[in-house]
Specification:
This is Cell wall-active antibiotics response LiaF-like C-terminal domain-containing protein. Helices cover 11% and strands 42% of the residues. With 140 residues, the protein is mainly beta. It has one domain. The two termini are 12 Å apart.
C-alpha cells in the first residue's frame, strides 16, 4: 500500500464502527479498506463476508459483534492473525474456527461475540491459488 493510500486509510479509520447487514443476499467487505475498532455484522438469512487480507488495520484488537439467524458470517484473516470465537453463543448453529496456526508476535486479534440461531460463523485464512499452493506460499 503506497504512502498516500495509507494516509487516506488512516483518516478513514476515525469511524469507530462499521455496520454490515445481509437479508437473503451477500454482503462483502474486501480489498483495501480501513478497519475500525468495532464491527457489527447481522445476517438473518444472507452471507456477510469480512475479508481482512488486504485491509489497513492500525489497531491490535478488533471487537466484532455478530447476530446470525439462518445466514452466515465469514471472517477471512491473514496468516499470523488470531480470532477468538469463545463469546459466540449458539442455538442450533455452528461456530467454526479454522485459524489455528501460531500467531505472529504482536498479531492482530479479532474478538467475536454475539449469537447464532441456526446459521454459521466461520473464521478462516484466505484460499490459496493452485500455483501458490504448490509453491507453499500465500498469494498475499
Amino acid at each position: 500500500m503506497s504512502g498516500s493510500n495509507m494516509q487516506r486509510h488512516a483518516s478513514a479509520v476515525k469511524t469507530s464502527e462499521l455496520e454490515l447487514s445481509s437479508t437473503g443476499s451477500r454482503r462483502k467487505v474486501n480489498g483495501e479498506w480501513a478497519v475500525p475498532t468495532h464491527i457489527r455484522a447481522e445476517s438473518p438469512k444472507g452471507t456477510v463476508t469480512v475479508d481482512f487480507t488486504r485491509a489497513f488495520c492500525p489497531h491490535r484488537e478488533i471487537d466484532m459483534r455478530v447476530d446470525v439467524g439462518s445466514g452466515s458470517v465469514v471472517l477471512v484473516v491473514p496468516r499470523g492473525w488470531r480470532v477468538h470465537l469463545d463469546e459466540v453463543r449458539t442455538d442450533a448453529g455452528r461456530v467454526v474456527n479454522r485459524v489455528k496456526r501460531k500467531p505472529f508476535p504482536g498479531a492482530r486479534v479479532v474478538r467475536v461475540s454475539g449469537h447464532v440461531e441456526s446459521g454459521v460463523v466461520k473464521a478462516r485464512y484466505p484460499y490459496r491459488y493452485l500455483g501458490t499452493w504448490f509453491k507453499g506460499r500465500s498469494p498475499h
